[in-house]
Design a protein that fits this description.
The chain contains 15 helices and twelve strands. It is an alpha/beta fold and about 300 residues long. The strands form three sheets. A four-stranded parallel sheet has the order 2-1-3-4, with helices on both faces. Strands 6-5-7-8 form a four-stranded parallel sheet, sandwiched between helices. Strands 10-9-11-12 form a four-stranded parallel sheet, sandwiched between helices. The longest helix is centred in the C-terminal third of the chain and has 18 residues. The mean pLDDT is about 95.
Length: about 300
């Protein structure tokens, strides 16, 4: 029995589903039952009647699935360590200090953060839901943690005061205007689609700025055939699946933490029910509030 047949058999026997983010390796995306952005996958995991969730992403994603569904077994089949750099940038202490300085502000934390930071936040958000949550939460001042670029993007579209934390996604933040100008020189005047984790200078020259799901939808529905896409390279797989006749040019943007799940590690984790996410019950209880508020304020 090959690995793919074995995986199908194990999923059926154990009532398991596989969730994968768009930044995962292409073969991992292909074996997943659901592929999506952070917000979509959080909904799928929450609403699924599966007994086991196999989460192919980075640590904060798997922990968020466990927080929203503590009764389910969540497996995180990574080789080595797979954390988002932003999980290490913000700490509960730093967030609480910002709250002291701005007592009337509510804390909205990007889902790319540790469970401990979620536990001291009023609501979480994803890149696709950030603006809606900022607009709907009952506060005129928002402490936005930890991504300063997403905070800047939201601040441009709201009248509320956004107080940013000094953090960023290393993969998106390092892309410069010169990188994009070079691609424009190579490919001509094509549309630029960028993730809001990019710096303002990139967003300002982009045709469209949005989440991974938003970028995919724009590229799929646009009449144009060529695009520069400024986000992690894993998205290219789904872009080509959706629109095989179109051309996508990406700067070199690779999140190594997103490339640490393999077919072999998925099969091994599911067969032996290993790599399980285990969390303190009190932490789950505290962090769950901000994740539930994310869905509440985003309308999902």
């Amino acid at each position: 029995m090959n690995q793919l047949d074995k995986l199908k058999k194990l999923k059926k026997e154990k009532n398991a589903i596989i969730l994968a983010h768009y930044y995962q390796n292409a073969d991992v995306q292909d074996v997943a039952d659901y592929v999506g952005d952070s917000y979509y996958l959080s909904e799928v995991g929450r609403d699924s009647d599966a007994d086991i969730i196999v989460y192919c992403g980075v640590k904060f994603m798997a922990e968020s699935a466990k927080i929203l569904s503590p009764e389910k077994k969540v497996l995180f089949p990574v080789h080595g360590e797979a954390t988002c750099c932003m999980e290490h940038q913000a700490t509960p202490g730093l967030v609480l200090e910002m709250k002291k300085q701005h007592p009337n502000a509510k804390v909205i934390t990007y889902i790319n953060s540790s469970s401990e930071v979620k536990a001291v936040s009023d609501a979480c958000c994803t890149s696709s839901s950030a603006l809606k949550i900022v607009e709907n939460i009952d506060a005129d001042e928002i402490i936005f943690v930890p991504d300063q670029n997403l905070a800047s993007y939201v601040a441009e579209q709201t009248d509320k005061k956004i107080i940013p934390f000094d953090g960023q996604c290393n993969v998106h933040h390092k892309v410069t205007l010169e990188n994009i100008k070079k691609l424009l020189e190579e490919h001509g005047k094509v549309e630029i689609l960028a993730h809001p984790e990019c710096q303002k200078e990139i967003r300002d020259i982009s045709t469209y700025v949005g989440s991974t799901a938003g970028i995919l939808n724009y590229a799929k529905t646009s009449p144009n055939k060529e695009f520069i896409v400024v986000t992690e390279r894993g998205i290219h797989h789904q872009l080509k699946k959706d629109s095989p006749e179109k051309f996508f040019y990406l700067p070199y943007m690779v999140c190594s933490s997103m490339k640490r799940v393999f077919i072999e590690t998925i099969v091994d984790a599911l067969e032996n029910e290993k790599c399980e996410i285990k969390m303190d019950k009190e932490l789950i209880k505290k962090a769950k509030v901000s994740l539930l508020n994310m869905h509440k304020y985003a309308g999902g």
